[in-house]
Specification:
CATH topology of the largest domain: D-Maltodextrin-Binding Protein, domain 2
CATH superfamily of the largest domain: Periplasmic binding protein-like II
Shape: globular
Structural class: alpha/beta
Number of domains: 2
CATH class of the largest domain: Alpha Beta
Largest sheet: 7 strands, mixed
Number of strands: 13
Order of helices and strands: HEHEHEHHEEHHEHEEHHEHEEHHEHHEHH
Helix content: 40-55%
Length: about 425
């Protein structure tokens, strides 16, 4: 059975189980608010989540239990839903809203009645809004993508920060050919790229350049309806630019087409490449592991046909159906979006931030974080692009990743032909989701 048909079968079987899901109660006890967050257990981020929950308990008197999970997070949520034992709160990616809402897991949020809701940015609220125009979460964290670059290498090869895609390609070539680490070996690359297909990483990475060129995967075509645009010339141009880095200039780290972010972080840290297009969540880690004087953060240059643009992501606080603690759910969401909750989640300049960029407009990020490099990410957020609230973004990202990865791995592949094929598949996927 294909992945798509298997996924459809699982969702169909769960749909029967989920009918009346709200009557089953949450997975926690009646007096303890159970909070799930998509972070590795015992990680710095999980510890920050525990700190946030503890501060909420102290402020409200509501007991909490934090469950940090990373691998197979969505699968485990499905299992809890099938047992009518969803957690009370889920802190998860904005891109998961459509999937969770379409399965009936989420309580609708009354923005006007949420204390502090009027202090949150409009862009963050848009990422908490479903395709039906209703709000299904409280915005919690935002992030935009930018370039983390080896500043010492750039200065060694005598080049300025890139202002265009051509400049960026030239910098990548210099990092590859001019021995920027000075060890006398041809062992450095320009770009480090998580170009594998696991969790759709190839598409995830490429999206920032796609948006920077004024293109997108989908175009809105009415309330809850979309048209696939992967064959737009601007889209093709962005994917072609990256294929040229893999195949013509050969400026990408070896093995990139099989790598996920876990491996790619290490490639950058080991000095095997010098340009990483990524979110701010690794900045503190790289400051510590690579050296603060060796790295800089630069905005993604506008593409030749559009821009500016970059990938926008974040996390929402989702209040799950079936909870016996609806008032406590609301109180936690209000605490998480408050200045106090946002500051705890930001974790200053230390590793483990679960609030990358604050969504509460009254929080002065510069007062919380002394590292000025965060400002580049904050400024990039002004033109960041979120995944649209289709019923299920995951298969769209995965299908796109499969197609994009193929043209990066096979240098004989024609990008235009491949993107035409991708556009057909995305159209079919939209039709299957009744979002075409």
């Amino acid at each position: 059975m294909s992945r798509r048909l298997l996924g459809a079968a699982i969702i169909a079987s769960l749909a029967v189980t989920l009918t009346g899901c709200g009557s089953g109660g949450s997975s926690g006890s009646d007096d303890t608010l159970e909070i799930w967050i998509r972070q590795a257990p015992d990680s710095d981020s999980a510890k920050t989540a525990k700190k946030l929950a503890d501060a909420f308990t102290q402020a409200s008197g509501v007991k909490t239990k934090v469950v940090a999970l990373f691998d197979d997070f969505e699968t485990k949520l499905n299992q809890q839903a099938a047992q009518k034992q969803l957690p009370d709160i889920v802190i998860n990616d904005t891109a998961q809203l459509g999937n969770m809402q379409s399965q009936g897991w989420l309580r609708e949020v009354d923005k006007a009645s949420l204390a502090g809701g009027d202090k949150l940015s409009d862009r963050a609220w848009s990422a908490a809004t479903g395709s039906d125009g209703k709000i299904y979460a409280a915005p919690f964290s935002a992030q935009a993508f930018a370039l983390i670059v080896r500043k010492d290498w750039r200065e060694k090869v005598g080049m300025q920060p890139p202002a265009t895609w051509e400049d960026l390609a030239k910098l990548a070539t210099a990092f590859t050919q001019k021995d920027p680490d000075g060890n006398g070996q041809a062992d450095t690359a320009g770009f480090v790229i998580p170009a594998g297909t696991k969790r759709g990483y190839a598409s995830w990475y490429a999206s920032s350049l796609i948006y920077a060129n004024g293109a997108d995967f989908l175009k809105a075509a009415g309330p809850g309806k979309y048209t696939a645009t992967a064959n737009d010339p601007k889209f093709v141009e962005a994917v072609q630019y990256l294929q040229d880095q893999f195949c013509k200039s050969k400026t990408v780290n070896p093995g990139a087409v099989s790598n996920d972010t876990t491996v790619t972080h290490e490639v950058f840290e080991k000095g095997q490449g010098g340009i990483y297009l990524v979110g701010p969540y690794v900045l503190a880690r790289f400051v510590k592991s690579v050296g603060t004087d060796k790295i800089e953060v630069l905005p993604v240059p506008k593409g030749p046909a559009g821009g500016p643009g970059t990938l926008g992501e974040g996390e929402n606080v989702y209040m799950m159906v079936g909870s016996s603690m609806e008032d406590a759910q609301k109180k936690f969401a209000e605490y998480a979006i408050s200045p106090e909750g946002q500051k705890i989640g930001m974790n200053k300049d230390a590793n483990g931030a679960i609030v990358r960029l604050p969504v509460n407009t009254t929080v002065d990020m510069a007062a919380e974080r002394q590292d000025p490099r965060w400002k580049v990410f904050q400024e990039s957020y002004e033109f960041a692009v979120y995944a649209p609230p289709v019923p299920n973004w995951a298969p769209i990202r995965q299908t796109s990743a499969d197609a994009i990865n193929t043209v990066w791995a096979d240098c004989t592949a024609d990008v235009k032909t491949a993107m035409d094929g991708l556009n057909t598949k995305l159209t079919q996927e939209l039709q299957s989701q009744k979002a075409s």
